[in-house]
Amino acid sequence: MKLHHLRYFIAVAEEGHFGRAAERLEIGQPPLSLQIQSLEKRMEIKLFYRRSRGVELTEGGRLLLKHARHILASVDVALHEVQRFKRSQGNELNLGFAGGTYFNRDVSTILYQFKCTHTEVLLKPALAGHTPELIRKLLEGKVDAAFIWPLTTMIDGIELTPVVQERLAVVLPVAHKLAVADSTVSLEKLAKEPFVLCERGSIGGLFDTIMAACSQAGFTPQCEQAVLQIEAIIPMVSAGLGVSIVPDSMRKTLSSGVMFLPIEDHTPTTTVILATRDRDTSPAIRKFMASVFRYGGDLAEKK
């Protein structure tokens, strides 16, 4: 028996239909049927009742399904562990980036300086996504470190290192009455405006910072459009669907149809954070963390 037999079996069991399972597996239905027949022959037991509208598991099939899922899950865990071990013994660093963090100038500088001073380490931008997704990938060992926005709660097994603070800015459609070049804008003036915001589940603490800034200005934003990825805010503002508050570095998107303006008075800030696995002692991570701390020290001296 081979692993692909179990994957095919699980697909048919979950779909309850050979045709749908074949589409899910991206193979033809006849080859799939032959593979299931081969598995039944090998195990000397009938796994499915063939019905006119699909298939139904037999008692033996239900028993196999339970163990097949466990076997494949164990294989996936083993592969991830081996890959993580391989990286820990070598000089490869898989990095993740929460949406918008890669626009930050300091993040770019950290990566550039690290690449120049540690030519023996292979930097691999492995994944871009929202913060909760990156935390999951980090715990699964699919990324070694990730630049994220602040979390709302601490997570076991994750170490968080603040990297740099960043100011927030207002982004407006260029045709908006407040969109005046080289000016600033008071948040109070946005109280009656429709907002385009990223969902809290995607950006966590950054969302809370935005809401707190608006609350301090005396209003709660009227969210007309909610998006999953923070980058999606810019084209929606450009289309005139609302205004927003985003990290200032997102002006680097160079999107037409929008204007970024500084916030008057008490400018709210957020923090770009480097997330790593707790007590990760791999050589590449140790070198990268040392580089991040050194850069942070240089920033503090300049200030």
UniProtKB/TrEMBL annotation:
GO cellular component: protein-DNA complex
Superkingdom to which the source organism belongs: Bacteria
Molecular-function annotations in GO: DNA binding; DNA-binding transcription factor activity
Residues covered by the HTH lysR-type domain: 1-58
Keyword presence, DNA-binding: yes
Signal peptide location: none
Sorted UniProt keywords: DNA-binding, Transcription, Transcription regulation
UniProt record similarity statement: Belongs to the LysR transcriptional regulatory family.
Protein name: Transcriptional regulator, LysR family
Phylogenetic placement of the source organism: Bacteria, Pseudomonadati, Pseudomonadota, Gammaproteobacteria, Enterobacterales
